[in-house]
Amino acid sequence: MAEELPELVLISDLNLDNLSNILRSREDLPWRVRTAPLDAVVQALSGSGHGSSTALVWTRPERVSLHFQRAFRYERVNKSDVLLEVDRFIDMLLDAAGRWQRILVPLWQVPADAHGGLQELRDGTGYHALLLSMNARLCERLSERSNIHLLNSGRWVERAGAGAWSDRMWFLTKTPYSNEVFRAAAEDLLAFHTLATGGSVKLIVLDLDDTLWGGVVGDDGWENLRLGGHDAIGESFVDFQRTLKGLKERGIMLAIASKNDREVALEAMDKHPEMVLERSDFVAMRIDWNDKPGNIADMVRELNIGAQSVLFIDDNPVERSRVREFLPEVIVPEWPANKLLYTRTLRALPVFGLEAISDEDRRRTTLYQEAEDRERTRSSFAGVEEWLASLGTRVVVSPLSTSDLARVHQLFGKTNQFNLTTRRWTEQELRDRMEDPLRPIWSFRVSDRFGDSGLTGMVGLDLTDPDRAVLGDLVMSCRVLGRKVEEAMLHVACDHARSLGRTRLTAELIPTAKNGPCRTFMEASGFERTGTNTFVWDLGTEYPVPATLELVSGEMSDRS
Amino acid sequence: METLALSVLERLNEDLPPAERATVGPGSVILGEGGMLDSLGVANFIVGMEEGIELRFGREVPLSDQDLVELFDEPSVTVARFAAYLRERMNG
User: Could you give the strand order of the β-sheet that contains A7-12, starting from the edge strand earlier in sequence?
Assistant: First the structure.
């Protein structure tokens, strides 16, 4: 039986039936869409049973704040009265946040062509200034909740252009926006879903000639490349590189796939004074004359990431076409012929999650470079066990704590491959579980002689049924896969369940298109397979700790 | 005028879930018995026609008025009938 899709509930004081239609016109829609009764925002958000649902709460500023409505009609109002009404609305959203999987809130808009006279941006009197304050208040207060997301509706209005607002549709049907706005909103909602469920790009593979710099280094020489200087094209390449560097600092890895003589290309990188990106910014480089799809496939395999997490940027339409053909999962955007548009094109791609940044994100390129060093040593050992033992792997296990909450939430949100159930716990749910002895979670930190991989795994148990123990969560970053950390995680789960007198630990895998690595591991884990997706360990026997690593109990200091 | 009406309807069709899309042609019934549009669809269609007429003919022809209500009182209004009504109205 097909798995039922989660629900997206459209909650609004404006008519969103056109948005509902546009969303449902998409065959790849990841939700069942339901529209709550018009103008019943409070009622629709209240009540329980929304745990797996997403609410889109799209309101009009003049409906949320009657004082703002008066200001929009040119009356004088007090800003404090407007913000008091905004705070009431925010309180309601914060109260509802615990009952919904996610709440999405588009920023408030009014038609930009409505002229507010000389006072329109004067703080305290102009309605445009009031609107800015109202939206700023949303950003300030709602940022504290990780499952409430503000959406930049200004982008939708801008994309729709002059026809964004429709007074005709407003007075006929209470629909203030044209369908162009709703189409842009639908695109953003789908992109949001992809990013929020682990679909963010992790690696950008870049060409060099006419992509990272202007010109062909093999023909022109590095001294004659267009990069920086008093030259519009040169400046645009520097701007593009700076933007890429910023993404790298936010944890997105960079790699090169270029048809060039390696030494010539590297000389340009090392010697050109205006190069922003350095060799150390790239987690992998394939600079040779081999076919690019093959080179990219090798990098994807080495970095142990999914091809759907890769963005390929190349000025050459033939190369783009080849990568699309041979690696259909890789994201290959159309790329402008005009080099001045590179940065804007990159920034318009809705593929970067850029969530709260963790230490692991900041260190990601280093972590993968360490992984490469680790793999390089492998061939010098006769067997895998010997090699694993040589790594000096140390696994520190700790009960979930507040200091790890952000990273654990992030890992739950974006890990797809080694994930037993792909349950996406909200931060509040994880917080609740910290206090719940029947649903404990442990985090795992991994280090070895090559470096510190950081917090890379979680195990969660469900002990709510007194007669059984269920492995509810088994999540691990693929960059430590194959080092027996996963076995250490199972040991911790089994050991805890045994200590409580449970006799069996059951793991029920929920298969997805992406969690094949987890299935493969469970099949070889030693657990008895009792059903297609069910694996059981008899707790009469201890699940062994792998001999090739050291498992250490971490501090339990931060449980508050 | 018929071409404009058909293009507006086709665009509206694209924004509908696949199961709710109708076949669009001159004989398609817009409203009434067996009509392809619900009340929101009619509003979308009227606004689309108003905007399309402005764009193509440079004329403002408000359609959400009493005359149109009477037209839609007919048992079934096809695309061809609607186009004829508009031609008459713009020429009249």
Answer: A32-35, A7-12, A54-58, A102-106, A148-151
CATH topology of domain A7-196: Rossmann fold (3.40.50)
- Distance (Å) from the alpha carbon of B43 to chain A's nearest alpha carbon: 7
Q: Does the domain made of A203-348 have the CATH classification 3.40.50.300?
A: no
CATH of domain A377-553: 3.40.630.30
Q: What whole-number distance in Å separates Cα of residue A290 and Cα of residue A282?
A: 19
Which numeric CATH code is attached to B2-91?
1.10.1200
- For residue A169, the chain B residues in CB contact (below 8 A) are 43-44, 47
| Beta bridge mates, A448 | A451
The set of residues, in sequence order, having a beta carbon less than 8 Å from that of A120 and lying 6+ positions away, is A126, A127, A128, A129
| Closest residue, chain B, to A186 (C-alpha) | B15
Q: What is the pLDDT of residues A117-131, one digit of tens each?
A: 777 777 777 889 999
Verify whether the Cβ–Cβ distance A172 to B20 is below 8 Å.
Answer: no
Residue A555 scores a pLDDT above 70: no
The closest of A340, A344, A428 to A148, measured between CA atoms, is A428
The tens digit of pLDDT for each residue in A183-221 reads 999 999 999 998 888 788 999 999 999 999 999 999 899
Q: Is B15 in Cβ contact with A183 (below 8 Å)?
A: yes
Q: What is the mean pLDDT of each run of 10 residues along chain B (92 residues)?
A: 93 91 90 84 92 90 78 85 88 76
* Residue A206 buriedness (CB in 10 A; 0-12 / 13-18 / 19+): buried
In chain A, the residue whose alpha carbon lies closest to the alpha carbon of B50 is A168
Any idea which of A350-359, A427-436, A455-464, B71-80 has the lowest mean pLDDT? A350-359
| Nearest residue of A to residue B39, measured between CA atoms | A173
Per the structure block, which two tokens stand in for A121?
A: 């941006």
For residue A133, the tally of other CB atoms under 10 A from its CB is 17
Tokens describing residue A250 = 């936010």
Q: Do B40 and A173 touch (CB under 8 A)?
A: yes
Assess A197–B contact: CB distance below 8 Å, yes or no: no
Among partner residues A22, A24, A173, which is closest to B43 by beta-carbon distance? A173
**Residues listed for chain B:** 92
